[in-house]
Amino acid sequence: MKPTLLILAAGMGSRYGGLKQIEPVGPNGETILEYSVFDAIRTGFGKIVFVIRRSFADAFMSRFESKLRGRIEVGYVYQELDHLPQGYQLPADRVKPWGTGHAILMAKDVIREPFAAINADDFYGAQAYREIAGFFQNGVSPATYAMVGYLLKNTLSDFGTVSRGVCKTDQDGNLTEINERTKVFREGSSVFYKEEGVRTELDENAPVSLNFWGFHPSLFAHLETQFKSFLDEKINLPKSEFFIPSVVFNLIRSGAVQTKVLRADSPWFGVTYPDDKAFVTAQIRQLVEQGQYPENLWK
User: Fold this and answer.
1) Cβ(7)–Cβ(47) under 8 Å?
2) Fewer CB within 10 Å: C terminus or N terminus of the chain?
């Protein structure tokens, strides 16, 4: 059974200032997520599922439907604030999305096969897709997941702070710890994160999660259980988020799963702030000139 690529595209890009998922960065107006789909198709994925919001469904679909029709099966699911388990009510002051764990949970009724989950606005590179495709062929199981890891120092923005899941691994390359740091930045030759006004230095060579995961569909049952626990504790905290790295770490700590950390040597870059766009556009142009991608992805 061919794996599915689940693309998390429901975020509105508050720091970016718009719908960055459809920002053109390629030579013929391609978006970052189109390069993700292209890489998924050429490494053997059989289906794409987008997690989006209903409010921009028409704009999103009109952008991608014609390009992908006939190339790969495409599906959509919707992440909305009021999509909560039975018995839970949306707080009146909640405006922030529930997070990446909630976004993935929205696909539980449409995915029955192993799947990768990624952010729509991150460029992960062809080699990363080859790594995860190999894992699906040889390693995935209800007790074995995977994460594509990148070095922290290669994943920062020059234009503001970023969020990163900072990881530790054991001698067998299994994930042993993951800590979500939400305000990560470089200052001089060092990297820091800030939490509650306190600045703490990070190892710039630490592997980080950029939300490129390889999962067995057994994950959905774990997500349902953990999301209810999250809501029981934090539903009335308006800025609380249900992060997928935290979900995975809870499973590792309980002994339910092990998670292989796959090394990504391909370039990563993302669009967090408006000023990131020019850099991303230049990097993609360079990859096209090197022959790693065609001038026009869908010609």
Assistant:
1) no
2) C
Dump pLDDT digits (tens) for 245-276.
Answer: 889 989 999 999 999 999 887 778 877 777 88
CATH number at residue 229: 3.90.550.10
127 in any annotated domain: yes
Q: Where are the beta strands (DSSP E) in 4-143?
A: 4-8, 47-52, 73-78, 115-119, 122-123
Q: Tell me if 91 is assigned to some domain.
A: yes
Residue type, 158: D
- Would 84 be classed as within a structural domain? yes
Q: What is the pTM of this model?
A: 0.89
291 Rama sector, left if φ>0, alpha if ψ -120 to 50, beta otherwise: left
Q: Which residues, in sequence order, are CB contacts of 203 under 8 Å at separation 6+?
A: 152, 191
Which residue range forms the structural domain that includes residue 233?
4-147+208-252+264-289
